[in-house]
Amino acid sequence: MQDKKRKIITILGARPQFIKAAAVSAVFKNSVNEILVHTGQHYDPNMSEVFFDELNIPKPKYHLNVGSGSHGAMTGAMLTAIEAILVEEKPDFVLVYGDTNSTLAGALAASKLLIPVIHVEAGLRSFNKVMPEEQNRILTDHISKLLFVPTQTAVDNLKNEGITKGVHLVGDVMYDGILHFTKIAQDKSTILRDLDLEEKQFMLCTIHRAENTNDIERLKAIFAGLNDSKQKIVLPLHPRTLKYVKEYGIEISGNISIIEPIGYLDMIRLESAAKKIVTDSGGVQKEAFFLEVPCITLRNETEWTETVENGWNVLVGADEGKIRQAILNFQPTNLQQKLFGSGDAAQKIIEKIKGYELE
Length: 359
Known about the structure:
Blueprint: E1 7-12, H1 15-28, E2 33-38, H2 49-55, E3 62-63, H3 71-89, E4 93-97, H4 101-112, E5 117-120, H5 132-142, E6 146-149, H6 152-160, E7 167-169, H7 173-188, H8 191-194, E8 203-206, H9 210-213, H10 216-228, E9 233-236, H11 239-248, E10 256-259, H12 264-273, E11 276-279, H13 282-290, E12 295-297, H14 305-309, E13 313-315, H15 320-329, H16 345-354
């Protein structure tokens, strides 16, 4: 049995998962039979298909086209569709990444069919259960058989919830990706020239999290802080966020350049060239840390507590004054510690999967 290639169904649905899959699927190519399922959670071509092309990820065998609706409707539709695929394909494992609705739907479908769940990026906690992502990651961790964690903090979080079996500290697969793709982005991306930008002469901002975009007062406060900073800010805007900005009639000053969502190579080129990054994205917080760019997080808490504790990330919520002050004054005070592994997380993951005893 050990010599037989394991069959894995991997569930993908959102930008951070595509990036993680780029590192892991590359290692899987000669070791396991991997079938990709794209739920369609990110359904805009600039948020989805471009990543498969840029990052050389295998094309999904299945595309569910579940791209909108409430959390319950979206998760339920994914759950139904994924279950049918699992019944047909009969995989040895189902692999899920992170904390999206796609993550939870894939994990639930597999668990109910008694298929072992592999959770990559397990053990993260913001300790804010109001967040849908927090609910998704907790539930997924508690039904997973193999839990691959990026940091010691994540190991400790799982232990505090009584989860110790199947937990493996492997490092962060996004760090694998950054190490590989940063040089490629520098060589191939023309985004700085296209936008007439100079290294370290602009700020990069992303806003997409529902707690900010769905709350008119928070979104107004965020843009007020950005406007008041008078700093040059480049803002690739998620389609949903742009819709809310227009609906709310939010003023955007001339120092902010709104651009359409961009591919991964352009994104990490902007991140590496930015003077500072302002974001509410968990993945972008990490990328900022990997690239040694100061990060200002538009949330009241973060699952990436290590980046704050190490002094390279500051939490400002949606406080207009804190946003303005951080943009002007925040600077890391510590040298970076090596907190996210050695860039070989994907290799460690495949070794553990190949050694797992199927029941």
